[in-house]
Amino acid sequence: MIARCGRVVVLSTGLLGSLMILLQLQIFTFEFSPDAGITSTQPLTMERRALSTPDEESPSSRHFPRVLLIGVRKGGTRALLDALALHPRIKAARREVHYFDDEDNYEKGEEWYLQQMPLSRDEITIEKTPAYFTNPLVPERVHRMNPAMKIILIVRDPVTRAVSDFTQVYYNRLELNKSLPIFSDLAFTKDGEINMTYKPVRNSLYSTHLERWLKYFPLGQILVLDGDVFAKDPLSQLQLSENFLELPHKIRADHLLFNPTKGFHCFRKSPTSKVKCLGRSKGRPHRNIGDKHQQHLAQLLKLHNRAFFQMINRAFDW
Ligand code: A3P
């Protein structure tokens, strides 16, 4: 009898011990998963834990992004994403996912978002959707998902950016046989002020948009890159990105080939791989909006630019 009791005690202690070890292992995996994109302070559902943890049986799985390239639209976001993806420790979602800004997508939930991410092991997953920068709902939603999210914003001269944005809208409408916009009619109010409702101009009000992000993320978590510098000297901005992501400098000058016909750099993963340039809609001649309107817009944007410089403790030459 005593012997039988002893065996039961030994058996249950053994079972309890194994259970404890299993539990500990599981907790360990959750908290130290290198690309979970989630901090341990965040409440996680079981599904999210499982989906964001590398699966031991398959060589790679999907991970939530730890970095978002939030914009600005026409700032050089596609080229920057493609160039960052040259880094062996970075995996980029190829298309713009529009999770945090599109109500239909947002309602699909985090598991849907995860499924849009590329397969990876312990690389850093990055996603870019320029609409994130300007949509007022996005900062809070991103923060709720991951308060430790790293944010990259690439800006360029806001007047040139607005003209580039306008050019894109113009050609999109041309393709769809829609009426063609006239910049000065849309960009300014009757009193000659900025028309805040016209997106190609509104997107250039960097301080308005960044202010909302700074309510949720400290400046140290936001890397602001210079899109005008990036277009000419991409490596400088890529190395700033590597520093920000705490990655070794792996993107080299020979990954980036200047194409004189395109007037921009094209990218290649290795000296033997195919060189990839961005499509025709990137780096095309801008619509001529007229010097007078351009100068007027530059004048009106000055105050906004100054507010932006104050927010980021740094000045650009615009
Ligand atoms: P323009 O078409 O006005 O010249 P986005 O990808 O955010 O829409 O930005 C497009 C802008 O990226 C282009 O604007 C172009 O100036 C800039 N850019 C920077 N590096 C580039 C590259 N290597 N190839 C093409 N465009 C590049």
Automatic annotation (TrEMBL):
3'-phosphoadenylyl sulfate binds at K74, G75, G76, T77, R78, R156, S164, K282, G283, R284, P285, H286. One of its GO terms (molecular function) is [heparan sulfate]-glucosamine 3-sulfotransferase activity. This is Sulfotransferase domain-containing protein. Pfam families: Sulfotransfer_1 (PF00685). Keywords: Disulfide bond, Glycoprotein, Transferase. It comes from Pristionchus mayeri. The active site is at K74 (for sulfotransferase activity). Residues 65-297 form the Sulfotransferase domain. Disulfide bonds join C266-C277. InterPro entries: NST/OST, P-loop_NTPase, Sulfotransferase_dom.
